[in-house]
Design goal:
The structure is a homodimer.
Chain A (H helix, E strand, L loop, with lengths): L6 E2 L23 E8 L3 E9 L3 E3 L5 H4 L2 E3 L2 E5 L5 E4 L1 H14 L7 H14 L11 E10 L11 E11 L10 E6 L17 H4 L2 H9 L4 E5 L7 E4 L3 E6 L2 E5 L9 H13 L3 E4 L3 H9 L3 E8 L3 E10 L2 E4 L7 H14 L10 E3 L1
Keywords (chains A, B): Amino-acid biosynthesis, Aminotransferase, Branched-chain amino acid biosynthesis, Pyridoxal phosphate, Transferase
Catalytic activity (chains A, B): L-leucine + 2-oxoglutarate = 4-methyl-2-oxopentanoate + L-glutamate; L-valine + 2-oxoglutarate = 3-methyl-2-oxobutanoate + L-glutamate; L-isoleucine + 2-oxoglutarate = (S)-3-methyl-2-oxopentanoate + L-glutamate
Pfam family, one (chains A, B): Aminotran_4
Chain lengths: 356, 356
């Protein structure tokens, strides 16, 4: 199979494009999508760009019963001079294959799929919004489609890429959020699927999210599933703290997702000579540092927000207000740097962007 | 909404029914299925029996991305005098709602859905096979259908019931299986979704299953996710041991599924006056008892097999051969009792069966 095999069936009916400042996340989709099929013995085949349309599946398809599925999320950005940039997309396809390995899903050819992804975004380039903070969200995903109730890996899969124009994550400017430290529900544990981007990891957090919302918190800080003591992730982002001049983020331990923004921030901080360490960090240690006045900044990192500053943490009735609920200078500089590179406003000294 | 609302659209094309001794599990489906829809504000509505056919879903449907889904599994049995029996179906619908609660899915009305389920099985009664050990497998499930990539509970769902005639779990007679005690991968942990029947719990076990198969084992015995010491489940069944005259099964701890066969066996053993206890049981404790010659029987329990005797356990290079790899007398009597009640060959003193 090569890019030569890609077929393109253009849609006759083009949808109106939304006002980019009025788009709710992930509810508007472009005119086309990418699909390819997998059959055991035949491998991945029939790569095609087709009109965005419903998929038709047998009710016994394994995706509905045993959750064999993986996904990715990345973005295309429009620069001021009208170029379209992707941010480290090869990292997403690498991670997709790592997730697939955990879920016993056959790997894709990363180079070929990169070609298909680029072709799809090129075809939909008018859908990439231009306002600051906006982008075209790219969602590759794989679902198990074999119609069988046997608890075993599927013999057939569909790989799809859908595209959704998204508004700014911070339409009114960056406002640090209030977070509940969850000490009852568990997101993931060593030996589980926490390091994989797979569906079941997300809906399993809805109850904790609802609990957080009830007490006025915007999101959840997850602790480890064993001792409920070590900090793991915030919502569906990685988490960083600046404590006494040093930046700390939880070390990858098998239950934390290896975020691409996380990796990029570690590289930038190292480049800047800012002390930074990946290690275990306990919530009680954080609270002690907070009481000593040493917690200077806290922020989540992910594709959606890039940097989402944390203004307040609530843990077992204890409140930690961070940097007077304002974005800290390091958080701001990291945000400006990464988003600047993504949108082509800053020099990409790291070679992270790919122009279509 | 009441049963009065149920609409039935009969299929014009009836499929040929398979030879019941040649049916692989979960690959053959009957002529009809049940469906109903949920919309926030409207609740569950439009209950209907329709021809078995593919479902059409937007590629952004939340089931494909965040795994918000639950399911159940139960069986209809044909008695020697041609009656159709269901085994404790109300327990399945109760558990479905318990699973839904964990996954932030709106509950169904158990009584109404029981009515729909019975109507569907009645319509398909010719599909219930008659050979000993065969049955009609019933798979109710709910999937999140809102087309949105926001990580939040869906505003729309579909509830479906599909039916599949299944052959005997032990076509050549009951053969105890060889099991690998998994000490690397984790099925579930406290605070997670292990007690819920939700898709992600199943595909997350495929790697451990493959590892077990590579070393000649038929299935996996899961240990707890925290200490990797306490016994939880075997494959997708509960596990029981008879040790020194006493039956032991792991206590429900939030990460173990509350099996309906498990519950029934506990009730039968109590009724018989056999000493039985639900408690934590460590794998090293089991091995010590084994070395002392005290492990008399071991068996998994679940809807598919009812009783699946364990003939050999392999744990970190240590082998435990149980009852000379033969089914034990208690396992056999439990199997005969439960299957006898299910098929109407034994008196149902417990009132567990419901006749259609």
């Amino acid at each position: 199979m090569s890019n030569f095999d890609l077929t393109i069936h253009e849609s006759d009916h083009k949808k109106p494009k939304p006002q980019t400042d009025q788009i709710a996340f992930g509810r508007t989709f472009t005119d086309h999508m990418f699909m390819m099929d997998y059959d055991t013995g035949k491998g991945w085949h029939d790569p095609r760009i087709v009109p965005y349309e419903p998929v038709t599946l047998d009710p016994a398809s394994m995706i509905f019963h045993y959750g064999q599925t993986v996904f990715e999320g990345l973005k295309a950005y429009r620069t001021a001079d009208d170029r379209i940039l992707l941010f480290r997309p090869e990292k997403n396809l690498q991670r997709l294959n790592q997730s697939s390995d955990r879920l016993s899903i056959p790997p894709i050819d990363e180079e070929e799929v990169m070609g298909y992804l680029k072709e799809l975004v090129k075809l939909e380039r008018e859908w990439v919004p231009e306002t600051d903070g906006t982008s075209l969200y790219i969602r590759p995903f794989i679902i198990a489609t074999e119609p069988s109730l046997a608890v075993a890996p599927s013999k057939t899969y569909i790989f799809m890429i859908i595209l959704s124009p998204v508004g700014s994550y911070f339409p009114g400017g960056i406002h640090p959020v209030q977070i509940n430290v969850e000490d009852q529900f568990t997101r993931a544990v060593k030996g589980g699927t926490g390091m994989a981007k797979t569906a079941g990891n997300y809906s399993s957090g809805y109850q904790a999210q609802a609990k957080a919302s009830e007490t006025g918190n915007a999101d959840v800080l997850w602790l480890d599933g064993i001792e409920k003591r070590y900090i793991e992730e915030v919502g569906s982002m990685n988490i960083f703290f600046k404590i006494d001049g040093e930046v700390v983020t939880p070390a990858l331990n098998g239950s934390i997702l290896k975020g691409i923004t996380r990796t990029s921030i570690l590289e930038v901080l190292n480049d800047w000579g800012v002390p930074v360490v990946e290690r275990k960090i306990a919530i009680d240690e954080l609270y002690e540092a907070y009481q000593a006045g040493k917690v200077e900044e806290a922020f989540g990192t992910g594709t959606a927000a890039v940097i989402s500053p944390v203004g307040e943490l609530n843990w077992q009735g204890k409140q930690m207000v961070i940097n007077n609920r304002e974005i800290g200078p390091l958080s701001q500089e990291l945000y400006d740097t990464i988003t600047g590179i993504q949108r082509g406003n800053r020099e990409d000294a790291y070679g992270w962007t790919i122009e279509l």
